[in-house]
Amino acid sequence: MNPSVTAVYPxxxxxxxLGHEDLVRRAAQLFDRIVIGVAAGHHKKTLFTLDERxxxxxxxxxPYGARVQVESFSGLVRDFVVAQGGKAMLRGLRAVxxxxxxxxxxxxxxxxxxxxxxVFLTPDASYQYISSTLVREIATLGRAxxxxxxVSLHVRQCLAAKVMASAGPAAHP
Length: 173
Hints:
Helices cover 42% and strands 17% of the residues. By secondary structure, it is of the alpha/beta class. Strands 3-2-1-4-5 form a five-stranded parallel sheet, with helices on both faces.
């Protein structure tokens, strides 16, 4: 009998993109349970609060049912993976430039968690250039509607509301 295998997919998801969603879809075909770990983001300035990011990720992963869980964490990802019973840590690679950092991170995580494998997945080619950072920049410097090809409708609506709120009363005629 094969044991149930849990994969943990950590990140800040500020916001979750179609590339992230593609990795979740692919991982759902490989693992019995996926826990998406939304990092508090203490080392990054995030556009969305932790609660907002959790809500967005939960909404876009709802179609996967109980097989995909969304939890927040702070501190070392190692502690979160171990607490979740993870046997694999899922990481996305968009391009060669991601590989150097992710390879170093995988090595460090291997030293900290000997029995947890890092599994790299690449998103579909149509999503390989998408990053949360670029999506945030487009939404805040341009128009939130211009992010349509990069995020789900729900996330686009959240971006539009956030941009409108941050623009202040002058943006509301």
